[in-house]
Structure formats: structure tokens, C-alpha cells
Design a protein that fits this description.
3 helices, mainly alpha
Length: 80
């Protein structure tokens, strides 16, 4: 889950840093991936929360995933 949260975070930082419609190919890739990445934010967060509350799992990576996704959500709300 940690790796997926980093990938989703890099995607959202990347698309907010550039003009995605300036290049046709980048705009096409953005249009294909924006919905799965948006769903990914919430799905990864829910799974990470479940992993934190399970008894026999490591807690560090799910907590880091939650922190990264929360930071990305605040970033998207602040700078958009």
C-alpha cells in the first residue's frame, strides 16, 4: 500500500505542476488515469486504516501511507 500511495501522490503532484492539456499525449494519459488515481486515494486510505487496526501487522507503512495521502489531499485542496 505504501508504494501505491507514493505513486498516486507523484501522479497528483505531477498533474498539478504542469499544463496537462498543453501536450495531447499527456492530456490523453491524464484523462485515462485521473479517475483510478482519485479512487486510489480513498481505497488506499481505507485499506491502510484497516491494516493499522489489525493485530498482527506492521504499523509503520500503513501509517506513512495515511500521512502521505492526507498531505496530498491537503495539497490538492490548498493549491487548486
Amino acid at each position: 500500500m505504501f508504494t501505491l500511495s507514493v505513486i498516486v501522490s507523484f501522479f497528483w503532484i505531477f498533474v498539478n505542476s504542469i499544463n496537462v492539456y498543453g501536450n495531447a499525449f499527456v492530456g490523453f494519459v491524464f484523462e485515462i488515469l485521473w479517475l483510478p488515481m482519485l479512487v486510489g486515494i480513498f481505497f488506499i486510505a481505507v485499506v491502510s486504516i484497516i491494516l493499522v487496526f489489525k493485530k498482527n501487522t506492521r504499523k509503520l507503512l500503513p501509517i506513512l501511507s495515511i500521512i502521505i495521502l492526507t498531505a496530498i489531499l491537503f495539497y490538492l485542496m490548498q493549491f487548486k
